[in-house]
Write a structure and sequence with these properties.
Helices cover 36% and strands 15% of the residues. The protein has ten helices and twelve strands. The chain is globular, with a radius of gyration of 19 Å.
């Protein structure tokens, strides 16, 4: 299994020229072959940036995606209303930028049986594999992240029960990780921000309205995650947990205590990538629930602002966490992506580069 002590969650800022090209493609002003050439060039640049920063783990920056979770709807038929707003809705908060509430799109729902039309991430992985000698990582959404796509009024003709829909979502992702493993993937990350949302009463009510009390929902979701993880033996899996990340804003506050035991103890992932960049994320005490066979990547470096972390401060916080998880089972990373969707966070490419370099440098200083 992969044991790198440095990592980052995955997404990177989209270059302005790539965003412009995406708009031109959608408007019919740019042909698909020309767009793909520009997209490939942007991804190659993102790979080079990570390598220059000393990253042990390299992603494609999720530059080909509208959002970290959008590829399910892009690759699978049967879902309506899955535009950019489908991945941005919620009550977002920021002390610096102010709060922003975005409504859930009224037309968002699964309305027909899911039909796999293409791979979610095979293109991403094969290009990445051919353009780096570092460990390539592919990110995929956790199955239960898509619970909100099942609507009791619009979805029952296709899926009479919520459980049946969730089984099909997991099945799509099982097929995906098997294909990625066949192509040579060695490290896959499941993004699961939906679990920490349960520390917020409003979000807990949202999920409980679908028939699952909080603890049962956690176990149900982790079982689906495990079905995906177990489909690709020999591949290292990570699970990323955060509290929302869009436009430098967040969804909820609170520590991991309420959700740590069922997630840390039950999920079959080998690496836990956890948000820990500010007091909003709570203390390190919940790490006592991490089993000895799992590695924890401490997301001490923020992607929500350009604030540059100091080496000595990061090292001190790692040592604090080592009171609960042995130092050799820890690593250093970002709290989330730099650009969970095309919207991006309020940081610059130079901020991004500096933060990745800091992670690499401090990890080398601590672990050699």
């Amino acid at each position: 299994m992969i044991r790198h002590h440095s990592d980052h969650v995955g997404s990177l800022l989209r270059p302005p020229e790539l965003l412009e090209a995406r708009q031109a493609l959608a408007a019919g002003r740019l042909a698909a072959p020309a767009f793909k050439a520009l997209e490939d060039e942007a991804v190659a640049g993102a790979i080079a940036l990570q390598e220059e920063a000393g990253c042990e783990v390299v992603t494609d920056g999720e530059l080909r995606r509208e959002s970290f979770q959008s590829e399910l709807a892009a690759a699978v038929g049967g879902i309506e209303g899955a535009g950019l707003d489908a991945w941005l809705w919620g009550s977002w908060h920021s002390d610096e930028l102010g709060d922003r509430a975005l409504p859930r799109p009224p037309g968002l729902a699964v309305v027909a049986p899911l039909r796999r039309q293409r791979s979610l991430a095979a293109e991403e992985f094969t290009f990445l594999r051919c353009h780096t000698t570092r460990t390539p990582k592919v990110t995929l959404p956790s199955p239960s992240l898509f619970a909100n796509l099942w609507d009791p009024e619009r979805s029952t003709a296709a899926y009479p029960s919520f459980d049946r829909f969730m089984e099909d979502v997991a099945g799509v992702l099982v097929d995906e990780v098997r294909e990625l493993a066949r192509l040579g993937a060695t490290y896959i990350q499941l993004d699961a921000p939906q679990y920490p949302l349960l520390i917020d009463p409003a979000w807990r009510s949202f999920y409980e309205a679908r028939g699952w009390p909080g603890e049962s929902w956690l176990r149900y979701g982790v079982d689906l995650d495990n079905s995906v993880i177990d489909a690709a033996p020999g591949v290292t899996f990570g699970v990323h947990l955060c509290r929302g990340n869009q436009g430098s804003r967040w969804l909820v506050s609170g520590g991991y205590e309420e959700v740590a035991q069922p997630i840390f103890g039950m999920v079959h992932a080998h690496r836990l990538l956890l948000e820990y960049d500010d007091p909003r994320s709570g203390g390190f005490e919940p790490l006592r629930f991490v089993p000895e066979d799992k590695q924890v990547i401490l997301g001490l470096v923020t992607t929500k602002s350009g604030r540059q972390e100091r080496d000595d401060e990061l090292e001190a916080r790692v040592m604090q966490a080592a009171r609960f998880v042995g130092l050799e089972r820890l690593g250093l990373g970002t709290q989330c992506g730099f650009s969970s969707s095309v919207v991006g966070n309020a940081v610059t490419v130079e901020d991004e580069r500096a933060k990745l370099s800091t992670i690499s440098r401090v990890a080398a200083r601590i672990w050699g």
